[in-house]
Structures are given as C-alpha cells and as structure tokens.
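Table S2 (continued). Query chain:
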Amino acid sequence: MDANPILAEQTRGNVIENRHRGAFVVSDAAGRIIASGGDIALPVFPRSAIKSMQAMAMVTSGAIDKFALTEEQLALACASHHGEDVHVAGVTAFLAREGLDVYDLECGAHQPSNGQAREQLRARGEAPTALHNNCSGKHSGMLSVALALGVPTAGYVQREHPVQREVRAAVEAVIGEGLTTDRCGTDGCSIPTWAAPLVAWARGFARLSTGEGLPETIALAGQHVFDAATRHPLLVAGTGHLDTVVMEAFRGRLMQKGGAEGVQCGAIRDLGLGYAVKCDDGNMAASQAMVAALLLAFAGPDAAQREVLEGFVTQPIRNVRGPVVGEMRAVGFNQDRGGAPDYL
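Corresponding output:
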C-alpha cells in the first residue's frame, strides 16, 4: 500500500524539520466522494471527534425530553471542553438536573486544558476533579441515558453496559454501518471507542447535518445537536481553540470537532457535506493545519472566515522566550484550483 500523502510540514528556521502524512475525505450524505487524499478506507478511531454522534443516544433513550435538557447542555455533551469556569459550572448544573453530582462521573480527573483555568485552580489550592475532565459533559449526557433507560448508572462506561450499547447503536445509525468488536478500544475517558473507515465518519457527518438517510427521530435530533453546538461554540471547546473560533466565524454553517491523535471531523450544512481528517502520526497542530486548509478549499469562506482559517493553516512556532523559530503549515492544497488538492 502506498504511503499517505504529506499534508503538513513543520519548519525550524528555513529547514523542514518534520513532515506529517495523513488522509482526508469530503463526502455528501449519499456517500459520493467530493474529494479525498490518502487511504480513506482504513479504519480509524474517531475519538472525541464524534461526540455529537454519541449524543444521539440521549434522543433514542428519551433523556433529552425526560430532563428537558437545554441547548447549552447538549453543546456540553458534544464537548471536549477546556475546564474554564463556564464549563465547570455548566457540567455541575447538568448533573444537578439529573439529581447527580461529580462523584457519579467515571471519566477521571485531570487539570483544565486552559492555562488560565489551571493557574486559577492552583491559586485557590484546589485539585482538579472529574468536572475539569474535558469529557465530563459527554459523560453527564451518558448518565442521563442511564437514568432514562432505568438502569444503574454505575459502570456506565463499560462496553456491555446498556448505556454503551445505546451509544453504539446511535453511532451506527448515523454512519450507516456496523461497529464491530474486533475494532474496539478504550478511549482516554474510559468509554469504548470504535474504529471505522475515515469515509464513514465523513458520510456520517453529512447525514447528521442534513438528516438525509436517517430515521426521522434521529434526523431531527441531529439538527438539534448541530444547532446547539454551533450556537454555543465556547462550550464545545474553549477560548482560542480551533473548534470554537471556527464555529464562531461560520455562524451556524459549520460544525467542527477535533479528536485525540490527529482526528478532525465536521459538516458544512448548507453544502450538505461532511469531512474527516486523520494525521497519521497523531500530531494535533498538524491535523489542525490540515483541516483548516480543507475548509479553505471546500467550505466557501467569506473574507473574515478565511482570515480565521489561514491562522491555523500556517501556525507560528515559538520557543520558550517567545520569538518565532519556525512554523507548522498545511501543504498539498491549492485553493486556486477550485479547492482541488495538488495531487488529485
């Protein structure tokens, strides 16, 4: 098999220090490939990039109606949040609506991703809790699924727990294919993660954003979740993060979500397109450059949106004193050819 193409480079001075290979695909809801590069049939773990698909279990279980969940809480269910005060307060309220608290979360604790939030926590002499875990909103949503199904909340992260069976079925409904146990792992927050071809994730996001090919209840829920995430982008990630600033710039046209190990997925709703990117070596900065270049080519950005994306297509690299010593940059995309990558 041929190696995936180089889609990003990192320089130091005037020398290319690292080259990052990857694959990408843009698809419509019917599975028609608009553009692609690399091996898009290779199964990949989407990690946190598909939290919006996992949130469909809150619909199929009846949890959204049972707890009258707000748009903000739906956005947090899709989030890899940075542990800022707005996120911690939001998850606390989410759990309280369910009659639960931090001790019911099984995602584990880690420091806030946001630097200022970390410093504030240290200044108060407090240790991080599971509320600061970037997946605590998703886990709050999964706890709501357990309560709606009338099953114990304990162990909800286990693969055969009714919650995870509901989540798995919801994701399968969105992408239109089965998830098999021979391609199952454990995510960083302890829930199962299922690998599927990169093209399946792109097609699934097109289906989620348009409703095309989905049962009516799932189609309507997809619109609801898409709206919630794009109306509250700060809750989905955090201050300055690509997911947040890109969704803010596109004002409801586009849902964007990153996942660990260099995965980027999303949908351009008015164009009916979904997309998925995987950086082979898992470098997140490189994957952000790749997806920004893809969106420049295919999302039809206006001048302000283009400026935001260009800030991620080429990212300055600074040393600890502050001076710029190199850059991370996307390569292989030629916006002057109607979005066609150079090698297609």
